[in-house]
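Morning!

As promised:
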Amino acid sequence: MDQLTLTAIFLFILFLLLGTGVWIGLALMGVAAVGIILFDKGFVGANLTDKAWDSASSWTLTALPLFIWMGEILYRTRLSEDMFKGLAPWMARLPGGLLHTNVVGCTIFAAVSGSSAATLTTVGKMSIPELRKRGYPEFMTIGTLAGSATLGLMIPPSLTLIVYGVTINESITQLFMAGVLPGLVLAGMFMLYVTGWHFLRPGQRPAKEPKTSFGHKLYNSRFLIPVICLVLLVIGSMYLGFATATEAAAFGVIGALVLATFQGSLTMETFSTSLLGATRTSAMIALILMGASFLSLSMGFTGLPRGLAEWIASLGLSPIVLIAALTIFYIIIGMFLDGISSVVLTMAVVEPMVRTAGFADLGFDMIWFGIFIVVVVEMAQITPPIGFNLFVLQGMTGHSMGYISRTALPMFLIMVVMVGVLVVFPELATWLPENLRNRP
Amino acid sequence: MKALRRGLDLLYFAGGVLGALCLIAILLIICGQMIARWSGIAFPGSTNYAGYFMAASTFFALAYALNEGAHIRVTLILGHMGRFRRWGEIWCYTVAAAITTFFAYHAIARNLQTKKFNFLSQGQDATALWIPEMAMTIGSTLLAIALWDHLIRILFTDHSGVYQPDITEREH
């Protein structure tokens, strides 16, 4: 059989196993094994255990379970209640009012947790009922929440960025730093949208909140401030070069444990559920990573990544067109797969494409591409049929998927603009990590 | 039969607990590494040790994560199969059990090799690799057992596979 037929069979099996519902990590291992047999490239078993062991025992990966654990601990504190109570007095007088608590709350929780579903539930649990009670339009409440929760993937610590960094062997710390400014810009754009609504739809504004004194505001956010300090400690220790990503994660876990103790929410039960929860999630992601690293070895034998990169180079497309094509490609993949799986599954094929001269000339490196991919994967979180955030919101509010996706559409469009901003100003993502790189 | 059932479930859960303890070990090693660096004491091989515990945490907890419905899969088609879903699940568990058994078989073979030739780690730790690799051997075998266990129960009882929590009930 020729190379092309073999590659076609290989891809067919890949989609067959994934589509019929075989667990993603195992499906990737299975396809990779078949690939090595098809292309007759040596010992399947030895290659499998090599790749599995190397990716599971990698030092870089140790940041993953620790950051998950930190998020799990804080998720079980009273952060959810305090987030709204603490933020509301500060946001009440802004144009757009308490809707800003959705955006800012998600931004803060995103900085302690790497997952967007956890961000969504933590912030939404309090803000949805409170905003309803005050008469904010449902459309705005749900939409801003769905959109802002995706910040969980971009603002460090981000599980997607850890997985991306481990897959392509780039520094997690640099990726995290790259995510900070774009994340804040995106949050700012969401807040502009809320402000715009305030001025364009004056009829929908609810009654003004009463004025509160500064002391009162401070008193209400007494539990929130330590969390913000923890965030600054974790990100700051990485930025200033005191700690690697893993060490910062260890700071995070200990800080979270201390906070939970002072809040009185740390019991033997919350400790063990958060620990077991982190163990499960990290085992799940590690299994996918093992499968993916074996698959990319096997994928290399098919010659598919190289062939595709050469083919695309021969088309002479401008990188901008390529970025637009990749955006659409990832949104489509994201309709069926979650963010982490779509990143690991595609990187073997996409990486050679991005590491070409055309991209570098525009200031797009692998770090920049990581942030790009995260924005695009975020967009997939709020597009039907499989948008994780939409599912979570459906469960929380009881609205139909169709309605929730309509409320999220403006946020989706803002993210499209964000991709444009990243293309025009790649420095947004690359400046901070480069600054860090130059540190002695 | 009942004793077997209880024994297996206990075994999977024990794997999860062991995985969780390894996670605590990672935390302790990393803290130790930081303290050592600040106080100028050498802690050679700390990154390797953290890596071994990372692998151990993953492998020990694989079967437990399966039973808790943590491993993700694309359920779009399965969800629309209606009364044929059982056949879809049989297919999935058969494929998964076959892949995992293959994995476990080779993990055992590899582990015997590393023991026989006493391969040492290339890092500063110079650990005899067969010791940390035991985690891969045990964990992959445990996952294979768990998958066969589910498959057999689906075939012969009214068990319908792992209870996959609805996405809305999941914390992540």
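DSSP finds 23 helices and no strands in chain A.

Hope this helps with the figure draft.
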